[in-house]
Amino acid sequence: MTATAAPVVLDRDGLGALVAALVAQGRTVVGPTVRDGAIVLAEMTSADALPYGWGVELDAGRYRLVAREDGAAFAHSAGPQSWKSYLHPQRELLWSADRTPEGDVSFTSHEPDVPAYAFLGVRPCDLRAIAIQDRVLTGGRFEDTGYGKRRRGALLIAAECTEPGATCFCVSTGGGPAADPGYDLALTEVVDEDGHRFLVRAGSEEGARLLEQVPHRAADVATEATARASVDGARDRMGRSLPPVDLRDLMGASLDAERWNDVAERCLTCGNCTMVCPTCFCTTTEEVTDLTGDHAERWQHWDSCFDLDFSYLHGGPVRSSARSRYRQWLTHKLSTWHDQFDTTGCVGCGRCIAWCPAGIDITEEVAALHAERGPETETETETETETETETER
Amino acid sequence: MTAVPVPHRVVARRPETADTVTLRLEPVGAALPDFAPGQFAMVHCFGRGEIPVSVSSVQTTGGLAHTIRSVGAVSEGLCAARVGDVVGLRGPYGNTWELERARGRDVLVVAGGIGLAPLRPLVLAALAEPEAYRRINVLAGARTPGDLIARKDLESWATACTGVTVDQPDADWRGDVGVVTQLLGRAHFDPHNTTAYVCGPEPMIRATARDLAHHGVPLAHIRVSLERNMRCATGHCGHCQLGPLLLCQAGPVVDWNQARPLLSVREL
Predict the structure, then answer these.
(1) In this structure, how many other beta carbons lie within 10 angstroms of the beta carbon of residue A11?
(2) Could you give the 3-state DSSP secondary structure of residue A185?
(3) Could you give the domains of chain B?
(4) Contact assignment for A105 to B267 by CB distance below 8 Å
(5) Backbone angles phi, psi at A31, to 5 degrees
(6) Does the record's keyword annotation contain Transcription (chain A) (predicted)?
(7) Separation between Cα atoms, residue A83 and residue A127, nearest integer Å
(8) Nearest CA distance, A179 vs chain B (angstrom)
């Protein structure tokens, strides 16, 4: 099968030709570019817009661009946005309603005008995040049709990770700097004395066809070896890690932990972590009427479990304390996500750490919960539950 | 998603209490699939929004009824709907009471306030087939006599036991006074061979389920209907989470052995 054909090598011009070919196909190409002091995702018509020569320096609550001498385009880790901005946009019209003078009401579904996206430079963590949102929004009993339509039309060009940031911890969530299947093309950037080039392998028929249209050469042993070594090396240079325990189990057993009070003192409940998280999918709806009062629109927009209104039931919010809202977010991400969608909700991209204005670090919080639980608590809890159930019967 | 509401006309409007009305709805054009007792619809009030409401009556004609208490912008608008007005419905969503689990067993229905509304079609289904169950009990409580809904139904149901109690009686009240769990001692049920269906405010659900368990009703035979904020009803908005459950799909009806540990965590 062509999809598993041998890898090839593109040089910088080759990557430029790839973008040109996508544009010529009528695709909307989205990739990383430098803007407002950050590497953001934006539509581009030329590969020249890529952040050649820029890297980032990250820490909890900190993000800085740094110039790189090697001119690499993909030697940066996750920026403030993720691909959900395109696949699961912040605001979306669901349907509209019209009322006649007689009081009859009709509803019209909104069929979104969906561009054929090509995402350039999808990091392996984000590739996993897209697969997770696929499960959430299209894998259940009902499908989010807007998401499904955008997703099915999107071409994914992964860029394997060779330069993990200080906030990265994908390896400890079961991922890694190498791209898992799901991409159409996967690039690995190599910059050394032999030049600036990209090792490319196709993951789909469409990816393979695309490669045929751009100038390339067969991959040489040295480029393949260097690419592999860079990605393998990245695996060992993760800035952070989650404790190597069953997180699902840990979170489930930590609902009454003291640590939630500690983090609640620091958490501003601003919801930044949920906005930058590539898997957070929650939305709310609003009803918008025009001045006549007879035309109404139903809009969906991103919501955050940190918002008080999120859990509002007549009378008040179910989760009013910061403690309960942070616990909801983290427990959902690492534990109950498995119950609901049979996967973790965290890919270890580190965005929530970098973009938290209070510098709260998910890996530190989980480590503290783990430390609080201690090794012997596990058996104690089990015994307790058994006794209680016995009495009830 | 993205399911679009289906227009339904209000064909009857019955005030139940000072703040609660029952709307009987018929499809204007195409009908929705049949609802089963326990399931809910997303009910849309033009220009205001949508709320989840369980069905309080299901008819094979495609018509159904919703009993709605005015507690927010949308429910206020729906309660004010007049006969002839059009509202939008999406559904059916959620699971059912699963009355079939009670076959050959005693049926015990316990309702608090407007919680009787979602239980009403369950009682009617059980009464329509009395030979399939041993005894059918309906226990209902409300804060005051004025907060009792479906009073005519309660009077007409020929069950083994129908108990009605209020927390705060008025001068005319001749019935029981106190919380609904006090009626359990009088109901006719063999706890080990009983399936209980409970709906009402969460504190009432906890107290009732706890007492039922204490009487010896198996936890897996105590079915409770729970409520959380809900925006989509299709499992995508994340609002209706209760721990591992997305109540729009794993609920609204949950077995007590599953609900109990979740409801025992504050602010989960």
Answers:
(1) 15
(2) strand
(3) 6-93 (2.40.30.10), 99-263 (3.40.50.80)
(4) no
(5) -155, 180
(6) no
(7) 9
(8) 27
